[in-house]
Amino acid sequence: MNEQDFLLHRIDLLEFHQSLLIKLLSNPKNEFYRLIVENGLTEQEANNFYCLCNKLSLKLAEQKAEGFVHFHPLLNQLSTSLPAKLKIEEVVKACLKQKLFEPLFTELQKYL
Predict the structure, then answer these.
(1) Of 1, 21, 82, 102, which has the maximum CB count within 10 A?
(2) For 18-36, how does the pLDDT look when each residue is reduced to its tens digit (9 = 90+)?
(3) Where are the alpha helices (DSSP H) in the chain?
């Protein structure tokens, strides 16, 4: 990556973080946004997280419909797929506070 590409990447990251900080100012309960900024996650990493949570939410609904009662494997899948900068306990707490994927994180919280 040359210097110009590096600078463009940094500008994109700063713009993404700035947009999250503005949302955080208007609603301090947006804890997951705070985690993104504090840990320097890129927009792509955040989008990958949201996509994974959508898939896990669907899987949770399917498993509940099939009569499953233990969802520890979903927690393991989320945990191993998180960016290394994030801790699963912080993510679950922040997402619940921000009301992101509530059914999923309410269930996963039981296994922490």
Answers:
(1) 82
(2) 999 999 999 999 999 999 9
(3) 3-26, 31-38, 43-65, 72-81, 88-98, 102-109
